[in-house]
């Protein structure tokens, strides 16, 4: 998984 994809995935779970 790309670093960007990981951050996007986390953002979906934990919106900033």
Characteristics:
69% helix; mainly alpha; elongated
Q: How many DSSP helices?
A: 1
Based on CA atoms alone, the radius of gyration comes out at: 7 Å
Shape: elongated
State the helical fraction. Answer: 55-70%
Largest sheet: none
Give the termini separation: 21 Å
Question: What's the pLDDT, averaged over the residues?
Answer: 90
Q: Bin the strand percentage.
A: under 5%
Tally of strands: 0
| Uncertain regions spanning at least 5 consecutive residues | none
Order of helices and strands: H
**Category by helix and strand content:** mainly alpha
Explain how this protein is built.
The protein is built from one helix and no strands. By secondary structure, it is mainly α. The protein starts with a helix and ends with a helix. The relative contact order is 0.24.
Gist of the model:
The protein has 16 residues and is mainly alpha-helical. The chain is built from one helix and no strands. The longest helix is centred in the middle third of the chain and has 11 residues, at 3-13.
Helices and strands in order:
Layout: H1 3-13
